[in-house]
Amino acid sequence: xxxxxxxxxxxxxxxxxxxxxxxxxxxxxxxxxxxxxxxxxxxxxxxxxxxxxxxxxxxxxxxxxxxxxxxxxxxxxxxxxxxxxxxxxxxxxxxxxxxxxxxxxxxxxxxxxxxxxxxxxxxxxxxxxxxxxxxxxxxxxxxxxxxxxxxxxxxxxxxxxxxxxxxxxxxxxxxxxxxxxxxxxxxxxxxxxxxxxxxxxxxxxxxxxxxxxxxxxxxxxxxxxxxxxxxxxxxxxxxxxxxxxxxxxxxxxxxxxxxxxxxxxxxxxxxxxxxxxxxxxxxxxxxxxxxxxxxxxxxxxxxxxxxxxxxxxxxxxxxxxxxxxxxxxxxxxxxxxxxxxxxxxxxxxxxxxxxxxxxxxxxxxxxxxxxxxxxxxxxxxxxxxxxxxxxxxxxxxxxxxxxxxxxxxxxxxxxxxxxxxxxxxxxxxxxxxxxxxxxxxxxxxxxxxxxxxxxxxxxxxxxxxxxxxxxxxxxxxxxxxxxxxxxxxxxxxxxxxxxxxxxxxxxxxxxxxxxxxxxxxxxxxxxxxxxxxxxxxxxxxxxxxxxxxxxxxxxxxxxxxxxxxxxxxxxxxxxxxxxxxxxxxxxxxxxxxxxxxxxxxxxxxxxxxxxxxxxxxxxxxxxxxxxxxxxxxxxxxxxxxxxxxxxxxxxxxxxxxxxxxxxxxxxxxxxxxxxxxxxxxxxxxxxxxxxxxxxxxxxxxxxxxxxxxxxxxxxxxxxxxxxxxxxxxxxxxxxxxxxxxxxxxxxxxxxxxxxxxxxxxxxxxxxxxxxxxxxxxxxxxxxxxxxxxx
Length: 790
Prior knowledge:
With 790 residues, this protein is of the alpha+beta class.
């Protein structure tokens, strides 16, 4: 009776709490959703102002500006296209400041953390001296690029140089107005009108655009903000962009410890490079260190550094564009000796930064080494001739902090041995996306050699709150081996840089199959098998939710014999309960004698007390395998249970009925500290409720206070487990819900085991009850009729 009241109390509490939240949501709509309060990724419609160089940390040997490149204007160049009908799988934005990759957006994957409508990346900046926001670039294939003007004589799409003055009836006074409107007020498929003032045209132009889903950005600019102990908000500068390059050494001069570049030389990281040529799928940048710049470090002659990016296209006739080998840039690095004497040079190449943080507060990545922790972003590498290795975010952060306290550079060496070595790959790994640098063979056909390969945080790790350490923006940097460059013979190195999904078919084409980590083999094998079955069922049904339900039915159908054995074991245990109680009453103070007598009773009736647990142990690898399958399968990411619904729109994450972060306490809904997370989820509540119902229906009645206490503890443990697994993927909850419903129906519909002599074909192995017991196994008094006869 106490258990029943406790279950009713829990259900009523959940209903009251849900009603309160829904009422609050109805009366006070929530503000814009913030996925990570500590990490501020640059909005898709904003970028660093073109006239303002990227902020650099203090450098004791700060490079000077290059006269040869001082007049080069800052430009942004787009490669590729995000239109699904284009021959590209992504669009890449390259900034001439440092000739760095600023943004990579995938055409066939969408941002599941931002439901707002997508207009396009415009690299906006405030218009000096007047209202409006200046367009500096337009994503190819975006709604902004396809927007239709009210003047039919004009071409479609916004252009760099346009000044946005209005969005509908809203007057745009600056960048913040534009960002605020598109982050809060719009959804995909919504139509918006944007008014721009174009140079050379007096009349304002009104563009109409239909918004799309926001594509996922594999890398993007990122900055951070934290609250001090006094509650003040501290805004930090933007982290470095991806694939920055500078010289590591020239002759006997090299980068000093703690510095970013060679002192006295112009800055290759923050200066604007010349855009030599560009097209739909390529862009070439160059930076010249003239004779005057080289004389500042005691060298003669000049150097010209060239970076050429070429974007891969989807191969003609590819059966599945989404899985083709077209998720990479080819980076060609050239260093030309402009002098007459041989020069000795090495360079430093930065890795990718700002990879996605989606799901960092609920997802859990696996580390290939037992008892090691992984973060939201980790460093993965493979030295030539070695094995695949992962350096977890927690270790990078802890080691970096220790080095900073000792006044040492916050870098971790990855290469083994003292000599220059080759690398098969190195990069940054997240839950569903990754970026890898794959050095290509050198001019002599052998592997490129590197003096150092390093992992490092690209943000200041000291102010990061402890609960957000796993979100640290980490990256890598490569230091090439020293090369002797003759006059007229350039040094040429090539890299294949992967930016894409962790799809097994895609990764295998790039030799990166080991990047998908499934853990111990005992669980990895069922995970792979379940993944194949799920994909097969999805191919038949077209819906992963239905596929998971069918998978559950298949698994439970195969376990019907075990379920019958478990039911028979439970019934037998119920029958033996009075006899066991008699043994306990007979030997109340002799635990050894009790145990011996109970074991003899079990042996007499051929009963195995652990027989009922067999089903649980067999399902354990399936449960863990399915959990890991859901955690790494890119196909389940963004897979909806109900197409067109925002609820349960991602079976690889929580169901997210609604956002409740602003209506509850931090201890409940904070992303980093909260036990439940910023979203109210329904599936875990349904799962726990069904577990409690199963316990109530199938647990034998307590025969003593000890058994009663054990059953109450089991009920409490179920509730605690529900809280612990509140943020598990919705697909896993769907498996448990289906399995629980199957179990309830199975127990109710299948015939119950009967004691011997009570009918049934062939009898039963369950012993007959003594006549002095009731149907539930408890002792009952003698018949009142017999008393009357006496």
